[in-house]
Amino acid sequence: MHGKDLLGQLIQDLCCLPGVGPKSAQRMAYYLLQRNRQGARQLANTLLSASQTIGYCEQCQTLSEQKLCRICSDTSRDQAVICIVESPGDVWAVDQAGAFKGIYFVLHGHLSPLDGIGPDELGLDKLTQKLIAGTVDELILATNSTVEGEATAHLIAELARKYKVHASRIAHGVPMGGELEYIDSGTLAHAFNGRKEI
Amino acid sequence: METSVYLQPGYILQHRPYRESSLIIEVLTRDFGKISILAKGVRKPKSKVAALLRPFTLLSLSYLGRSELRTLTQVELVQTSPPLPGLALYCGFYINELTGHFLHKYDPHPEVFQLYQACLVQLSENSAIEPVLRNFELNLLDNVGYGLSLAFDEQHRRPVSTAKKYIFSADSGPVEALNGTVAGQTLLALHTRTLIGSETLAGAKKLMREVIDFHLQGKPLKSRAVIAKIAASLQSKDTPREVVGTDDLA
């Protein structure tokens, strides 16, 4: 369709985005070049500077341009409660929910023995250092509700027990507004096992 | 070759993301052996199937297709299996990797399916993990054609004796030797699947490791390395190994 000219190259490069195939990439390229060159220039500049300056927070490993991210440097937050999540996207999701006022720790993945991903790849040594330092009161394990997520949560819970730090796992079960009839049996079984007194 | 299969019992051994919203799962089925199935669209936010496609649970799968990669059409939960507790969960991954390595695709092994199922039940019952793993390894090898001769010394033409030492090789079995590294007792315990005592268990672990490595021909078992690392990270200097008990595979 497009050869090895600059336009073809642009379309091909846009395909690196998730959810963007050749067709939508082509649409984006044409739009930027025909209707919004200013926007294209700005996008290019922002992308360039973002890819150069955004790194990882020293404390929680989430994406941040500063050495300490916005959440870790916020003094009004409880620095003694750490919520463990799998990805920076999860930080955003938990923060949006507004129920948590502590700080985070991002693993950038989960324990996956079959892919050779173990404690070292998840930066657990960094977490261990924090636990040893004794500044942590509670770990909240908000890893995904997959088997790998459970395995990760279990491993970190063991670590917490070793250093005598309280660890808890987020609950999972029936979603808000969910009707039991339409909920899959796995989730429902889990909800029953994790029921609590009222 | 059948084009569509309905309600086949199976366990997921491994899964990996495919494209934007799909998943490729490797399944151990009862009647068709190990197969790969493409589960389309299950990683979308509204997917109801995602919660079901978990390893270590017995599923009932319907799929179709002639190509090497079948397409999942329906999946149901047969029964909620009891969750694997702690360490047994990591060992579950090891069992999955081992099964995946030793079975060829589309090679039916109903006995291995039974073994796998029994092994998961035993692991979830929180009994001693090591004998369960060793028995599974032995039975798996037996079923895929790598069965070990454990109780008879072919070279000297006599049964293995508990009091003697042996050198063991995966293809020719035990040979009596004064400088042998394997105790006769360990061999007989493996043979009768009755592993008791820490010394026997340690010997059996070492032996099975060598045998498995021999058959894998240099392919690494990733889960074994990860479990060793997990064990190391949980180990503290003042806790004796048996207390933490994570040394099972390492």
Order of helices and strands of chain B: EEEEEHHHEEEEEHHHH
Strand order of the largest sheet of chain A: 4-3-5-6
Query: How many separate structural domains of chain A?
Result: 2
Write down the CATH topology of the largest domain in chain B: de novo design (two linked rop proteins)
Description:
By secondary structure, chain A is of the alpha/beta class. Chain A has two domains: 3-53, RecR Domain 1 (Helicase, Ruva Protein, domain 3, Orthogonal Bundle), CATH 1.10.8; 63-197, Dna Topoisomerase Vi A Subunit, Chain: A, domain 2 (3-Layer(aba) Sandwich), CATH 3.40.1360.10. Chain A is built from seven helices and six strands, in the order αααβββαβαβαβα. Chain A has helices spanning 6-14, 22-35, 37-53, 88-97, 124-133, 147-162, 185-193, and strands spanning 55-56, 63-64, 78-85, 102-106, 138-141, 166-169. In chain A, the strands form two sheets. Chain A has a four-stranded parallel beta sheet with strand order 4-3-5-6. Chain A is globular. The N and C termini of chain A lie far apart (64 Å). The mean pLDDT of chain A is 91. By secondary structure, chain B is an alpha+beta fold. Chain B has two domains: 3-79, Nucleic acid-binding proteins (OB fold (Dihydrolipoamide Acetyltransferase, E2P)), CATH 2.40.50.140; 87-244, Recombination protein O, C-terminal domain (de novo design (two linked rop proteins), Up-down Bundle), CATH 1.20.1440.120. Helix content of chain B is 36%, strand content 25%. Chain B contains seven helices and ten strands. Chain B has helices spanning 87-102, 110-124, 129-143, 184-191, 198-216, 222-234, 241-244, and strands spanning 4-18, 22-29, 33-39, 58-64, 69-79, 152-153, 158-159, 165-169, 173-176, 182-183. In chain B, the strands form three sheets. Chain B has a five-stranded mixed β-barrel. A three-stranded antiparallel beta sheet of chain B has the order 9-8-10. Chain B starts with a strand and ends in a 6-residue tail after the last helix. Mean pLDDT of chain B is 85; it is low at 237-248. At the A-B interface, helix 5, helix 6 and helix 7 of A face helix 1 and helix 6 of B.
